[in-house]
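seq:
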Amino acid sequence: MNEIIFLVEEAPEGGYTARALGESIFAEADDAASLEANIRDAIRCHFENDEVD
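struct:
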């Protein structure tokens, strides 16, 4: 099992951003719950279907 660590920060214009460390994955959202969903979606888009659990 691989792990991806995200750096989550509050965005200056409001909401949150998340940037993966070691991968080219970025997500943003207005709230924490939406950010989690956007991160999962970004991961699915970044990797092949069989690489994501």
